[in-house]
Amino acid sequence: MDSTLSAPLPRPLAHRSSVDPFIVMDVMGEANAREAKGEDIIHMEVGQPATPAPRAARERAQAALANDRLGYTEALGLPSLRERIALDYGERYGVSVPPERVVVTAGSSAGFVLAFLALLAPGDALMLPSPGYPCYRHILKVLGARALLVATGQEARWMPTEGDVERLAGEGVAGLLVASPNNPTGTMAVGGRLHELARACRRLGLWLVSDEIYHGLDYDQPAETALAFWDAAIVVNSFSKYFSMTGWRVGWLVVPEGLVRPIERLAQNLYISPPAISQHAALGAFDAIEELEAIKSVYAANRALLLHELPGAGLTDILPADGAFYLYADVSQYTADSASFAKRMLKEIGVAITPGIDFDPERGHRFVRLSYAGAPTAMREACRRIRSWIKAK
Ligand SMILES: Cc1ncc(COP(=O)(O)O)c(C=O)c1O
Predict the structure, then answer these.
(1) Closest protein CA for atom 13 of ligand 1
(2) 371 CB under 6 A from ligand 1?
(3) Is 246 close to ligand 1, i.e. is its CB under 6 Å away?
(4) Confidence class of residue 342 from pLDDT cuts 50, 70 and 90?
(5) CATH number, position 206
(6) CA separation, residue 298 to residues 262, 295, 305, 327 (Å)
(7) Cα of 295 to ligand 1 centre, how many Å?
(8) With a 6 A CB cut-off, is 133 part of the ligand 1 pocket?
(9) Ligand 1 touching residue 225 (CB < 6 A)
(10) What is the pLDDT of residues 366-385, one digit of tens each?
(11) Rounded to 5°, angle at Cα 326 from 37 and 142
């Protein structure tokens, strides 16, 4: 036995090291371990495309590997990538964004850390829609800031409202975070909601952080960028989802001019620069729209299949999501403990899903999230397994 593994720690750990786990990753670890032992697992737990990075991105990476030194880049990212991202705002949304306001980050995850560090003093609160992506609240906790959870409901498509912002704004509340399409619900801020939220934040002197990581993955109407409504909004985005590049760890922020240098100083000190090879690959990703749209059409087909099949399989209470690649299902007719429900489903039929408590500590014990970013054959097989499993209950 390696004695260093069980060696007692010389001192207690800092309080922040007790941060809650990102349960999705724990479920994925368990599912991978079962798969490594030969079990036939269907991955509907983690929000990641089953496809690799698009060909043009991989070719750029190969060329960079052959020809480039791949040293540190500027802390704010390769100028050519910042320019390309800025250009995309004009092309995709008709919004003018100067490249100087684009900050390339190591995934949007690093973007949140940089933005929260720059915006929030210890003790400050950020309003977070609940259910929502768990790492927002975990990162805030680690940084000594507070998550002010806004309980959203199905009738408001799981989005915060202007009324919520007005009701909760006050002492120590620094801003609102919104994600459209949202994770885990897949719902979007439609009918002018994002505009209203931007207006409310502006009026009340609050930051608006808009997580736009699922943009491009919308099925009925295009998602709007917060930058269309307010230049001072902080946009967080990534190459992980639409661009199918989770493991490359590359994303970006768009920030107001006055935040560029503070964020640059934080980035220099915390990360030096985002991974060089991934930035080269990301440049290629913009040339792969045809390939990416073909991948998206598979998600659309998966979504249609699941919305058709899951009610018959026993998961009857699902909001037809507008975007991303998630469905959020109410399973309270079967359990009051979504964590053990998901655990049993993985163990008994090899379908990995995520319990709602990752996304909503209050009500999530009644919900599960299913990701449909996998292959259509796997989605069909998952429906078959879930149907007979629920029937046997
Ligand atoms: C809503 C949302 N934001 C941010 C992230 C972080 O993604 P990344 O760091 O890969 O850009 C995720 C990942 O699942 C997410 O679902």
Answers:
(1) 47
(2) no
(3) yes
(4) very high
(5) 3.40.640.10
(6) 41, 5, 10, 15
(7) 19
(8) yes
(9) no
(10) 999 999 999 999 999 999 99
(11) 80
Ligand 1 center–CA 73 separation, angstroms: 23
Which atom of ligand 1 is closest in space to residue 132's alpha carbon?
A: 1
| CA gap 300, 138 in Å, rounded | 31
DSSP code string of 42-98: EE-SS---SS-S-HHHHHHHHHHHHH-------TT--HHHHHHHHHHHHHHHS----
160: Cβ below 6 Å to ligand 1?
A: no
CB of 50 closer than 8 Å to CB of 302:
no
Question: What residue numbers bound the domain in which 301 lies?
Answer: 3-52+290-391
Please tell me the distance between residue 213's alpha carbon and the centre of ligand 1 in angstroms: 7
Q: Kindly state the tokens that stand for 203.
A: 């009026």
What is the rounded CA–CA span in Å between residue 102 and residue 16? 30
What's at 383, amino acid-wise? C
- Which of 108, 95, 59 lies closest to 288 in space, CA to CA? 59
Domain boundary (260, 288, 316) is at: 288
As for how many domains the chain has, the answer is 2
Is the pLDDT score of 1 beyond 70? no
Dmax of the chain from CA atoms?
62
- pLDDT tens readout for residues 19-46: 998 888 888 999 999 999 999 999 999 8
Residues 250 and 159 in one domain: yes
Interatomic CA distance for residues 248 and 240, integer angstroms: 8
- Provide mean pLDDT across the span 320-329: 91
Task: Note whether 188 and 158 are within 8 A (CB).
Answer: no
Mutate to test the pocket of ligand 1, among 238, 326, 359 (most ligand atoms within 8 A of CB): 238
pTM: 0.95
